[in-house]
Amino acid sequence: MDVRRNVAGAGLALALSAGVAMAQTAPITLSVDLTDAPRKILHATEVMPVTAGPLTVVYPKWIPGEHGPTGPLGNMAGFMITANGQPVKWERDQVDMYAYHVTVPQGVTQLEMKIDFLAVVGGEFTAGGSTSENLALLSWNTLLVYPEGKSASKVMFTPSVKVPSGWKFATALDKDGGSGESAQFKTVSLEQLVDSPVLAGRYFREVALAPEISPKHYLDMAADGPEEIELSQKHIDEFNKLVRETGALYKSRHYGSYHFLVTLSDEVAHFGLEHHQSSDDRVMATTFSDDREFVLDGLLLPHEFTHSWNGKYRRPAGLATSDYQKPMIGDLLWVYEGLTEYLGDVLAARSGIWTAEQYKQRLSTIAAEYDNRPGRTWRDVQDTARSAQVLNDAGGGWDSWRLSLDYYDEGELIWLDVDTTIRKMTDGKKSLNDFVAKFHGLGGDTPPKVVPYTFEDVVAGLNSVVPNDWATFLRSRLDSNSYHAPLGGLENGGYKLEYTDKPNSWSELADAESGTFNFWYSIGMRVGKSGGIYDVLKESAADKGGIGPGMKILAVNGRAFTPDVLKAAVHNSKDSGPAVELIVENTGYYKVVKLDYHGGERYPRLDRVAGVPDRLDDILKPETK
Question: 53: which residues sit within 8 A by CB, 6+ positions away?
Fold first, then answer.
């Protein structure tokens, strides 16, 4: 999730003015000890050059890629400061909880700071660090402070790490000494340090990908057991293809090397976080050995890899802040995340991680969900991007009315519309590939750096491919309060959204993974195996019948609830069939609900439109052999 701009004088915002007492002659040293990671405690010692006088240090708050003030301050512990072996008292700011005020004694040239991080789920913990008995993911921002007002690109750190005996590790940082379980790394900016996590583990494997390509790419895996890192040659070949396909698409590489840091564990949170020269990918333990899980998580590595170009190199100007305390502006997250979602999905198909049919089945579920989204009538997709820091933790049901991170998947639909429109306007001679090659390949191969962009830059980039009123095209979709989703990309791609009484294989996989049963497009709810109602579609039959998230279905048409019983009742309701009658429980109270619905089972699919070129199929074709 990042920022970009191509006007003269662009680049990172100027460093904040500072009145801090810090010497600039030497870097800060940061030594992290992971030997206590199995107990979910990480230790750090930070030595900061200073001069006498008042000093304010800050704990990173706005973490790149997390789209909010998510620095896990509540998990920071054991913060102790000494000078020449003597304690130095710190005081937290009364307003900014992330800031600490210190008075450096006369004659003191450096402060030693002890920081612990509690890698436990809870409080403000989001990405942070994850650990288990046999692995650890180190996010450097969880174990450091830096002088207030200093640009992250100017504050220099010399980091080192120690891991438990017998463990191995990987990172995008360059080593500068050490051996075995300890390593010192070359001095880097705070910006590059925070952007370079470390993955360590007892069961560890590194696979060199597409070895003929430079810079070099690596798949680094840490797991809770040795069997979980034994992925097949077929999957290795698909990741090899992913590396080759990105070169064909972006026509550039903006890193010295790239590491996919994959945590395979059921003991840690599951998500992905992008970095410039690596990605932090945390998935279920059997993701690489279970074909179902591999498919369901097939987007993750292509998505986070794409962020190296779209988000880290080219970054929305509102997200290209000079330090980690300044609030970020998410207006262009529909580019940062929406375009990345689109390109990541396409790359998953082009590289063979997904088949073309799996891609289209997934796309049908996205199109159907966002075409049944009543919240669009009061909140446009642009507002979901602007509100990302609030919506990121929203949950508990009624998502179709509140909306949440719609800029991801609705953003994908918008960019599919852009791609197929370019292809239609140029009779297939040009496509979004041309935009990507120019926009994200700007400057050719480069070292890691940030090139910010604005909405006007995106419009100009599209116009350089094919002249059009792209500003109106985009704004009419971003600012729309239409009930229905922008499905022009499907239509221009040669397909239309339809419904059938048979779920597609993608839906069946996703439901099996989540443990829910999808009645979203019929009676309008998602139900668990035991009858718990996870969410209800606003304005659906379930909503109009008075059902809400958190209730539990006990009986269907007089029979004890099972998913199959409910499915049969929905099926039999079609046309003049009997209504679906439910007995539901809500916080200890019971009621009978009759749903006025006679549409039978409904599941989305894409149908081919005769006479329209199959542009969607062309999009999914590999660019390399």
Answer: 21, 103, 104
Cα separation, 197 vs 217, whole angstroms: 16
Whole-Å CA distances, 304 to 65, 298, 310, 331, 454: 10, 11, 9, 20, 22
Q: Residues 543-601: pLDDT tens digits?
A: 999 999 999 999 999 999 999 999 999 999 999 999 999 999 999 999 999 999 999 99
- DSSP H or E stretch at residue 531: none
Residues 6+ apart with CB under 8 A from 281: 260, 261, 262, 263, 272, 300, 301, 304
- Residue 597, domain CATH: 2.30.42.10
Distance CA 418, CA 590 (A): 50
pLDDT in tens, 403-427: 999 999 999 999 999 999 999 999 9
Measured in degrees and rounded to the nearest 5, phi and psi for residue 206 equal -120, 130
For residue 188, how many other CB atoms are within 10 A of its CB?
20
Burial class, 557, CB count within 10 angstroms (exposed 0-12 / middle 13-18 / buried 19+): middle
Find how far residue 421's CA is from the centre of its chain: 27
Sole residue written with tokens 């049908």: 364
Is position 144 within any domain? Answer: no
The span from the CA of 47 to the CA of 31, in Å, is 9
Q: Residue 324: inside a domain, yes or no?
A: no
CA atoms within 13 A on the CB side of 285: 14
For the beta carbon of residue 467, count every other beta carbon within 10 angstroms.
9
Radius of gyration of the chain (CA): 26
By residue range, what is the domain housing residue 597? 522-601
- Greatest distance between any 2 Cα atoms in the chain: 89
